Amino acid sequence: MVNNMKNITTKKLLLSSAIALALVGCGGDNDNDDNSNSGPNSAPTHSGDISLTLSEKDAFRMVNLLQDAVDTDGDILRVRDLKASLDDTTGFDSSQVVRVGVSPDEIAPHIDTGETREIVYTYNISDGKDSVARTATITVTGEDAAPEFDDLFILVDDPTNTELDLLTGVVDQDEEPLSIANFTAADNLQSGLYTIDAETGILTIDTTTVLNGLQPGEAEIFRDNTYHVEDHNHSLERTATFVIVKATDEPAAPIVLNPVEVTVDTDSALKRVSLASPAYVLEPNGDALTIDWDSFTPTNGAPALKFSRSEGVNLGVDGIDFAAYVAEGETKTFSYSYEFNDGNDEHTVSNTLNVTVTGAATANLLNNGGFESDFDSWSSEGTPTITTTSAFGLDFSGAQFASMITGDKLSPNLTGNALENGAGYILEARAALGDAWGGYPMSISGDTSDEVGAVLAYNSWFAHGYNPRTHAIRFTGAQNVKINIEASINAIEMDELTLYKYSIDPGNNLISEENATFSNGAGDWTLVDGAMVANGELVTGPSGDKRQILPLPAGTIKNGHRYVLSMDVAIDDFTGPVNFRASILDPSDASNETTTAGGAFSGIFQNNSANNNLVTVIDPDRNTSITDWETRALELHVGVNVWGEGKNHRIDNVRLIELP
Question: What is the pTM of this model?
């Protein structure tokens, strides 16, 4: 029995020793230098000095000082003579000897953007007999974020609300303590009305005194208060507006607080801004506001836009509406006055809208619209080809273009939300047709609120003896737009396919509203042979080759510019494609037309549905040799062509738009 107990005790001791040795071999802190190997010894080796770089935002990290260290004799390795290059080791913990803990969050308050905290540990790796020197360099980089904020607006309509937090809406990614400095009050905010605690950012204001000086429904506005928002390293100026209003149950007019400020680029998506926002207007009775959209009036030479994509009290600002007035890279501010009320005309007040616009290059929304990368980004059916030599006289750009024979189909790959709902788009194609008397291969489809895959627009391709020609189609953006090009009748050569946004605001029109919409009769139009204006439309009558004429003053068309001529054309008793005429010409020399086709009897289109969005791109420099277009008084001619098939046409919304 005694011998058995002795064996058990011996086994326990051996097991404990084995565990202890294993722990030390893994980097434990045992100080015993004895190794069991009493023969020849090989010194430890390692893979090189250790180098680690962290950001101040990184999580806690542990660095193993024995990383990749090897002893070929199997001896236990230890760290000896560990020394740090810094006296202040805040954020670095070497208490475990073989491991160094790094806490970037403890170091962060001491370093800013562009600064680093670096520590170098020197030490020896020992096997108890021999050792090898090593260093571990740990670097933490600073990322000091500045506070972020917009200007501050605070509305006070409660006399008990006296403490205003000037740090409201301030975001600091570093979550550093913030304070304010250099507070400068508005001229009408007298020193006796407020106190300020710079450390907390609290402005205490004597609202009772201010309210005692107001009548019910009145407000006191303290504009352009300024101060600096500060963290430990930044000091940024902020502007604040305080409005104190005396509420009332009696009817009172809205109070304008600030002009409306909107910033867009000419390629921006539609931006909506509530004109009823408390940042701009105060309604003492809480009544709903009504915006008079017809009252928008330019005040500093701004274009007379209608902001037609606005709804309710929400102003819609579309940057493309300003594209013809701002050069690429240029920034301008355009101002408008407008009126609104609270439902009572006697409470009508006015405010100012300032739109700051930066010009951007017109982007082609189609990838590979010139087919320079073969049919990349296009889907095809049939046998369309990439060609380098034109059979029909196409003046293509680049090295190659697309060629289609009857039955071929092409469609560019667009994502479902590639286009903006409700925006206006134009698709252009430079093309030559195998049969210049016809061909209408292009249409646009998409998902509308009423129909999935609805046809949004047809194209009116017709060369009438003139190749090549710039063909175009216009439509309103929808979901899942698909562009369909089909050589259903003729062989076609195509290049320069360009899809771009254009202004649909009725204020962007070189033709007056009266002459464009026929809302007050024929205006300046000369009507012939039974044509008349009825129900706000120009009705042509069925006679062929009878053109209705609108004079255009000199300067309407200029060299160096491109234009879009568009109109809505409805055809009564539609049974199939019908020919139509739309031209702009110099009446003193009828051969000098600025249509995309040119020639005295050109400007012919085929309308392919009962209701058509007719459009043509006018490029006087490309399609004529005339260099003095702006000196010429011109005429717009529209009507049933000589091959008009005896159909009556109804014309509305005639627009001539300068393209950016």
Answer: 0.71
